[in-house]
Write a structure and sequence with these properties.
The complex is a heterodimer of chains A (258) and B (216). Chain A has 10 helices and 10 strands. Chain A is an alpha/beta fold and 258 residues long. Chain A has a domain of 67 residues. In chain A, the strands form 2 sheets. Chain A has a 6-stranded mixed beta sheet with strand order 6-7-8-3-9-10, sandwiched between helices. Chain A has a 4-stranded antiparallel beta sheet with strand order 2-1-4-5, covered by helices on one side. In chain A, strand 9 and strand 10 form a beta hairpin. Chain B has a single domain, classed as MetI-like (MetI-like fold). Chain B is built from 8 helices and no strands. The longest helix of chain B is centred in the N-terminal third of the chain and has 38 residues. The chains are: A alpha/beta (258), B mainly alpha (216). At the A-B interface, helix 3, strand 6, helix 4 and helix 6 of A face helix 5 and helix 6 of B.
Chain lengths: 258, 216
C-alpha cells in the first residue's frame, strides 16, 4: 500500500482517473451542502473521507453513483459523465460503482445467496449456473460460504455487512463506495468487516470510504480527504493528514477524536 | 301475497348472490388494475402525477359511494350516454375501489425502508426490476390484511348498487320482502349470505398472512 502512496499522493502524475469530480455543488433548497468539490481518484487508489457529521462527506459519496443529484459541476466515472435524467446511462454507470451502506440494506425477503445473485441475473443476464458459482465463491471470499441458504435476519450485523460486500462485488464494479459501513456494528464485529475491506484494497480495488475508523484510514488509505463545511478542506497521504494537519479545523477535528 | 318457503327464499337469494359476486369481482379486478397503474405512475415521480392522483383519491374518498353511483347512472345520461345499471355500477365501483386501493398500496410501498430502494439503485436495477424484485414482494406481505379488509368492504358496498336498479342480493331481498311481507326472515337470510361471502375471505387472509410470514 505504502509504495503506491508516493505515486498517488501527487495526482498530477499520469494515470487515468477513474472518478473525476469537478466543481461539484449540491443544494437542498437554499442550503448548499457541497460547495464546489474537486476530487480526482486514480484506479486502485484507496481514499478515506473523514470529517464532522454534516460536513458533506456522505453526500459527496452518494453523488458518485447518483443516489444524490447535484446542481452544478461534473462527475465522471471511468470516463463516462454522470447524467441524472438519462436512465440508461445511469444504469450503465452504476454497474461500475458498487456501494455498501451503513445499514447493510440486504433484501430481507431473499436468502443470502439470492441477495448476491439478484442483480447479476437481472442486469448482466448471468446464466444461473455461473451466477450460482460466482455467488458461492464471493461468499466464501467474505468467509460466509456456509450461509448461502441462510436468511439475512439470521445473521449478525458483521455477517450481513459481509454479505452486502459480496453482493456489491457480484456486479464486478471498478469502484466501491463504503458509507460508514462499520458505524452500525457492535465493536467486536467491526474487525471482521474491515478485514474484508482491507483485502479488497490489497487486491487493487478502487475504494472511497467515509469512515470514523481513523486507525483503519491511516493503515489502508492512500489519501485522506478531510471535509469541512461542504468543501475538501485538506487532502493528502495519511501521514500528513494525521501527522501534521495544516488547518486549525483539521487539528480541532482530530483533537476531538482522542 | 305469495307463499314462499324459507328454502325458496334462500334459493332465490342464492341466485341473486351470483350478481353480487360478479359485481364485486369487476370492482376488485378493475379497481386493482387502475389502482396499480396509478400507483406505478406515482412511484415513477412523473411531474404532476402525485398531485393528480392525490386529487383523484380525495374525490372518491370524500364523496359517498351512493352519490358516485347516482352520478354514473344518471349523470352520464345527461350527456346523452345511455348506461345500463350494469355499466354504471361496474364503472363507479371500479373507480371507487381504485382510489382506495392505490392509497392503501402506496402506504405499503412507503413502509419499505428507503435503503431498500437505494440498495437496488446502486445495483443498477431498472425501475421495473426494483419494483418487481425488491419492493413488491416486501410490500405485498404488508398489503394482504388491508387489501382483504377493503375487498370485504367492496362486497358489502355492492349492496348500494340496488338503488340504481341493479338486481343483486340486497335488491332481490327487497323484492322478495314485497312479495312475502316477511322482512325479518328475508333480510336475516340476506345478512347471512353476505356473511357467508365475507367471512371465508377474512379467514383466508389470516391464513395467507401466517403463511407468508413462515415462507418469508
Amino acid at each position: 500500500m505504502k509504495e503506491r502512496c508516493a505515486v498517488t499522493a501527487d495526482n498530477t502524475l499520469s494515470g487515468f482517473s477513474i472518478v473525476d469530480i469537478r466543481q461539484l455543488r449540491k443544494r437542498y433548497g437554499t442550503n448548499e451542502v457541497l460547495k464546489g468539490v474537486d476530487l480526482d481518484v486514480k484506479r486502485g487508489e484507496v481514499i478515506a473521507i473523514i470529517g464532522k457529521s454534516g460536513s458533506g462527506k456522505s453526500t459527496l459519496l452518494r453523488c458518485i453513483n447518483g443516489l444524490e443529484e447535484f446542481q452544478e459541476g461534473t462527475l465522471h466515472v471511468d470516463g463516462q459523465p454522470l447524467k441524472h435524467d438519462d436512465a440508461k446511462s445511469m444504469r450503465e454507470l452504476r454497474q461500475h460503482v458498487g456501494m455498501i451502506f451503513q445499514g447493510f440494506n440486504l433484501f430481507p425477503h431473499l436468502s443470502v445467496g439470492r441477495n448476491v445473485m439478484l442483480a447479476p441475473s437481472l442486469v448482466k443476464k448471468a446464466a444461473p449456473e455461473t451466477n450460482d458459482a460466482t455467488a458461492r465463491k464471493l461468499l466464501a471470499r467474505v468467509g460466509l460460504a456456509e450461509k448461502f441458504d441462510a436468511w439475512p435476519d439470521q445473521l449478525s450485523g458483521g455477517q450481513q455487512q459481509r454479505v452486502a460486500i459480496a453482493r456489491a462485488l457480484a456486479m464486478q464494479p471498478s469502484v466501491m463506495l463504503c458509507d460508514e459501513i462499520t458505524s452500525a456494528l457492535d465493536p467486536e464485529l467491526v474487525g471482521e468487516v474491515l478485514k474484508v475491506v482491507e483485502s479488497l484494497a490489497e487486491e487493487g480495488m478502487t475504494l472511497l470510504m467515509v469512515t470514523h475508523e481513523m486507525n483503519f484510514a491511516r493503515k489502508v488509505a492512500d489519501r485522506v480527504v478531510f471535509m469541512h463545511a461542504g468543501r475538501i478542506h485538506e487532502i493528502g497521504p495519511p501521514e500528513q493528514i494525521f501527522g501534521s494537519p495544516q488547518t486549525p479545523e483539521l487539528q480541532q477535528f482530530l483533537a476531538t477524536l482522542h | 301475497m305469495v307463499d314462499f318457503s324459507v328454502w325458496q327464499i334462500l334459493w332465490n337469494l342464492l341466485l341473486a348472490a351470483r350478481w353480487t359476486v360478479v359485481l364485486s369481482l369487476i370492482a376488485f379486478v378493475g379497481g386493482s388494475l387502475v389502482g396499480l397503474a396509478l400507483l406505478t405512475a406515482r412511484l415513477r415521480r412523473w411531474p404532476g402525477v402525485a398531485t393528480a392522483v392525490a386529487t383523484y383519491v380525495q374525490v372518491f374518498q370524500g364523496t359517498p359511494l351512493l352519490i358516485q353511483l347516482f352520478i354514473a347512472y344518471f349523470g352520464l345520461g345527461l350527456f346523452g350516454i345511455n348506461v345500463s345499471a350494469w355499466v354504471a355500477a361496474g364503472v363507479a365501483l371500479t373507480l371507487y375501489a381504485s382510489a382506495y386501493l392505490t392509497e392503501i398500496w402506496r402506504g405499503c410501498v412507503d413502509a419499505i425502508p428507503r435503503g431498500q430502494w437505494e440498495a437496488a439503485d446502486s445495483l443498477a436495477l431498472s425501475f421495473g426490476e426494483k419494483l418487481r424484485h425488491v419492493v413488491a414482494p416486501q410490500a405485498l406481505r404488508i398489503a394482504v390484511a388491508p387489501t382483504v379488509g377493503f375487498l370485504v368492504q367492496v362486497i358489502k358496498g355492492t349492496a348500494l348498487a340496488s338503488i340504481i336498479g341493479f338486481i343483486e342480493l340486497t335488491k332481490t331481498g327487497g323484492m322478495i320482502t314485497n312479495a312475502t311481507f316477511r322482512p325479518f326472515t328475508v333480510y336475516a337470510c340476506v345478512a347471512l349470505m353476505y356473511f357467508a361471502l365475507c367471512w371465508p375471505i377474512s379467514a383466508w387472509s389470516k391464513r395467507l398472512e401466517r403463511k407468508m410470514r413462515r415462507d418469508r
